[in-house]
Design brief:
- The complex is a heterodimer.
- Chain A contains no helices and eleven strands.
- By secondary structure, chain A is an all-beta fold.
- Chain A starts with a strand and ends with a strand.
- By secondary structure, chain B is mainly beta.
- Helix content of chain B is 0%, strand content 55%.
- In chain B, a hairpin with a 5-residue loop joins strand 4 and strand 5.
- The chains are: A mainly beta, B mainly beta.
Chain lengths: 115, 110
Amino acid sequence: DSGVTQTPKHLITATGQRVTLRCSPRSGDLSVYWYQQSLDQGLQFLIQYYNGEERAKGNILERFSAQQFPDLHSELNLSSLELGDSALYFCASSVGEPTGNYGYTFGSGTRLTVV
Amino acid sequence: GQQVMQIPQYQHVQEGEDFTTYCNSSTTLSNIQWYKQRPGGHPVFLIQLVKSGEVKKQKRLTFQFGEAKKNSSLHITATQTTDVGTYFCAGYNYGQNFVFGPGTRLSVLP
C-alpha cells in the first residue's frame, strides 16, 4: 500500500457517459498529480494541484476536468467519453511544493474501459 | 517543449545478464528521477539525481546523470526475475513539470 488511495479500481462505462475518479493523497502530501497511461504507453501528464490550487496543466482534454478539495483529496471528471479514453488513470502525490525535489508516490490506478 | 526519450523500448535478457537503459532529454534538466512499474502495478519511485555527473547505487542498480545533465542511465548488474518491469525516467525543469520517458520494458528469462 503506497498510501495514495484511488477509487474505483475498475470502471466500465459506455461512450458518451461521464465518470468521476477519486484520489486521496498520502497523509501529509499537498501536491496531487493525474496521469493517463494507455495500453503499453508511457505516462501522460494531465493536471497538477497544490494545496487546493491548480498549478499546471498538461495534455488534458477539454472534456476532462479536475479539482482538489480542502481535505486534499482530488477528483478527475471525464465526460462525453470516447473509446480512446480507455486507459489506466494514475494519481500521484508528493510532499511540499511541486519544485521537483521530491519523488512521486503513485496510487494503484483506476482502469477505465469505455465500451 | 521538453521531450524525454528512452532506449531501448524493450529488452529481453537471460537471468544473470546485465541490463542498461538510457534516457535522453531534449533540454538540460534540473534533476531526473527513475521509476519502476511492475506488470499490472503502478510506478514506484526509485531514485533522484540532481548533480552533474552524479552516480548513485542501490544494491545491483547503478544510476548515472550525465555531465551535461541531458542524459541518464540505469544499469542493473546480474538481473533477476524480480527485476522484470518497465523502467521510466522523468526529467524535471524548474517551473515546469516532470516529463516521463516512454519507458524500457525489461523481461528476464529464467
